[in-house]
Design goal:
Protein name: Lipoprotein
InterPro entries: DUF6252 (IPR046219)
Strand order of the largest sheet: 2-1-15-12-11-8
Strand content: over 45%
Order of helices and strands: HEEEEEEEEEEEEEEEE
Number of domains: 1
Largest sheet: 6 strands, antiparallel
Helix content: under 10%
Structural class: mainly beta
Number of strands: 16
Region (Disordered): 20-39
């Protein structure tokens, strides 16, 4: 019994000596694109927008996927300071081009500050022609990693029937690892 206890203790000591504390591993800089592989960036008007970091960038979940409409509904969101970009794709099936129309079902928006009056939404654009697109270039259901590009136009709703100026969101790209699925 004494011998087996001694062997068990020696084995546990050996495992503990070989394990590496996570704090010993090199860590990427906080907020860098490599800290979790999550990035959502674009040009808004003429200003750069970049959200990066873990799946919760500035306390906001970057990606959510739910099976509400079609096989799935995919929502990608990136926050930079008080500004955020949200892309909502209905009937998400994987790689391909998803057209953003004023009447939906795919919706894109850019929100500035904390007021809802500054939410430039694709649904507030006039007409029925496409106002943007989201191109999913890579989707791996096993790792839940998605990559792609996007662009869209939106405008804020000031009051019923009254809208503000159009905002262009161009040169958008995203990489999101571990899209949350439920």
């Amino acid at each position: 019994m004494k011998t087996s206890s001694l062997l068990l203790f020696a084995g546990l000591l050996g495992v503990a000596a070989c394990s590496k504390d996570k704090s010993d591993a090199p860590q990427p800089a906080p907020g860098s694109a490599n800290s979790a592989g999550n990035v959502l960036s674009a040009t808004v008007g003429s200003s750069p927008f970049q959200a990066s970091g873990t799946s919760d960038v500035d306390g906001t979940r970057v990606a959510v996927m739910s099976p509400d409409e079609g096989p799935a509904r995919l929502v990608l969101r990136g926050r930079s300071g008080n500004n955020d970009i949200t892309l909502s794709l209905v009937r998400f099936t994987g790689t391909g081009t998803y057209t953003v129309l004023p009447a939906g079902p795919n919706v894109a928006s850019y929100s500035e500050g904390t007021s809802s009056a500054t939410s430039y939404n694709s649904q507030f654009m006039p007409g029925t022609a496409a106002v943007g697109q989201v191109v999913v270039t890579s989707w791996d259901p096993a790792t839940r990693r998605i990559q792609g590009s996007f662009s869209f136009s939106g405008r804020p709703r000031i009051s019923s029937g009254s809208y503000g100026p159009v905002q262009q969101v161009t040169a958008g790209s995203f990489t999101v690892s571990n899209v949350f699925s439920f």
